[in-house]
Design a protein that fits this description.
Blueprint (H helix, E strand, L loop, with lengths): L17 H6 E2 L2 E2 L1 H20 L21 H25 L14 H25 L12 H9 L1
Antiparallel strand pairs: 1-2
């Protein structure tokens, strides 16, 4: 009785030059170079967005000079730009590295558990921050300054 031969399905690696081995491993870009490229692309995109004139960025009017007031609208728009930049750069990196977009931690199977963990750790770190600022007396909780409709108007700015 003839039995089929077993073959080890190991890939034969092509010898690479010294410089190529610095940038590429068996699975494509080495992790450090991928991270560096991601950070450079992200920084370039953020700098590019911030070089666009303010009316085109949909920013609200800045507060008076010397004022440290930040509105909710400014915060949402700023974080929205950063989220869009992260999404775009992640998509670009998946094309550069020829990998699936979900390999960057966006698989549906773990989405809810990752969201829950992120919410927990985000709340925990914010609690530590608020606690530290309160202990250093850099943050004080006082009486309510705004009431009723004026609080809603301020929250919508």
């Amino acid at each position: 009785m003839n039995t089929p031969e077993r073959f080890d399905l190991q890939e034969t690696s092509v010898p690479r030059s010294g410089v190529s081995r610095i940038f590429f491993g068996d699975d494509g870009f080495r992790a450090g170079w991928s991270l560096l490229l991601f950070l450079l692309l992200f920084a370039a995109l953020i700098i590019g967005v911030h070089s666009v004139p303010i009316p085109l960025r949909l920013q609200s009017e800045p507060a008076a000079p010397g004022s440290a007031e930040i509105t909710a609208r400014e915060t949402i728009l700023s974080n929205g730009w950063q989220l869009a930049a992260l999404f775009l750069i992640t998509l670009l990196m998946s094309l550069i590295e020829r990998r699936s977009f979900v390999r960057y931690g966006l698989a549906r199977a773990r989405m809810l558990s990752d969201l829950g963990a992120g919410l927990f750790w985000g709340a925990a770190m914010l609690s530590v921050l608020v606690g530290t600022l309160t202990l250093k007396r850099s943050l004080r909780f006082g009486g309510v300054v705004l009431r009723g409709s004026s609080a809603l108007v301020y929250a919508g700015e």
